[in-house]
Amino acid sequence: MKYRFAIAILSAALLSIPVLGQDASQPQPSPVEKELAARAKASQEITLDKNMLALAAKSEKDKATRDLIAGLDSIYIRSFVFDKPSQFTPDEAAKLRQFYETSAWSPMVSNRVAGKNVSNEILIKKVNGEIHGMLILNITPQAVQIIRMLGVIHLDELDQLGKLGALGALANANRSANSSKDESKSK
After folding, report:
1. Bridging pattern class, strands 105-113 and 118-127
2. Is 66 within the bounds of a domain?
């Protein structure tokens, strides 16, 4: 009986090894993204996991930026640019939104232009009242940009990421979020 129990425990441990090796902090991309990449005139993909972010933090001279990077688990950026406006449809934009709009994410900013394939949206993921994720979707008739960050995020520190080259869009998202808050306060 002891041996059966030990074998069952060992088997369960061995079966869990592949699951433990997967990066649970970075969800899989939307199926729409593969279709967009295939049709895009130009695309950019940046994926930084915890280890890559740790390397970036070590090389960063500014302490505030180092501290911000140290709190992040991952940064995922996808950008697609098309030749013509008709190559990315409103239906695809809706599918992209549906993929990311889950119960874990709450809308913070949503700017959509009726009748046009244009929107800017920011969703946040809260854990125990603290922001642990941010998703930014920027959609125009000829371009789509997806930025997803996971980890502890302090909105007032996002400008620091703008110093890291391609991550400058995050600083712009912070300005957009702050201006939307200001607009809603004035109403």
Report:
1. antiparallel
2. yes
On the 0-12 / 13-18 / 19+ scale of CB atoms within 10 A, 42 is exposed
Give residue 56's Cα distance to chain centre.
18
Q: Where are the alpha helices (H) located in the chain, listed in sequence order?
A: 2-21, 31-39, 50-59, 63-70, 90-100, 168-186
* CA distance to 24, 34, 41, 78, per residue, from 37 (Å): 24, 5, 8, 9
Least confident of 31-40, 115-124, 168-177: 168-177
Answering whether pTM is above 0.85, one says: no
Asked whether residue 143 is domain-assigned, the answer is yes
Overall number of domains in the chain: 1
Between vectors from CA 157 to CA 156 and to CA 160, what angle results, nearest 5°? 140
**Alpha carbon 49 to chain centroid, angstroms:** 12
What pLDDT does residue 181 have?
45
The residue range of the domain holding 80 is 30-186
Q: How far apart are the first and last CA of the chain?
A: 71
> Would you tell me the crossing angle of helices 90-100 and 31-39 to the nearest 10 degrees?
140
Check whether 41 has a pLDDT greater than 90.
yes
Question: Is residue 151 situated within a structural domain?
Answer: yes
Question: Is 6 within a domain?
Answer: no
